[in-house]
Amino acid sequence: MSAATLEKIFGLIGTLLVAAFVLGLAESISSGAAGFWGGFPFWVICFSVLILVCYNYWDTCLRKKSSD
To answer: What angle do CA 61, 52, 15 make, to 5 degrees?
Structure first.
């Protein structure tokens, strides 16, 4: 396998693990004592972070880079 393919595979695995952790944490906070409206600001932060994580994966692994 080429280095680019391995980078895509492991980048996707890392992105999915971060997403699972962050969404699980947000769900745990919302279903606990905070309730939905108490955990809502954390959900907004989590989705913002996940957008940044997905963008970083795209920028690092998937975007066509011009050769310098």
So the answer is: 55
Q: Give the pTM.
A: 0.84
DSSP state of 25: H
Which residues lie below 8 Å from residue 62, measured CB to CB, with a gap of 6+?
Answer: 8
Give the three-state DSSP class for 29. helix
Report how far residue 13's alpha carbon sits from residue 26's, in angstroms, rounded to the nearest whole number: 20
Interval 8-40: pLDDT, tens: 999 999 999 999 999 999 999 888 878 888 888
CB 39 within 8 A of CB 8: no
CB of 32 closer than 8 Å to CB of 15: no
Tell me if 45 sits within 8 A of 25, measured CB to CB: no
Hey, what's the torsion of the CAs at 12, 16, 18, 23, to 10 degrees? 160
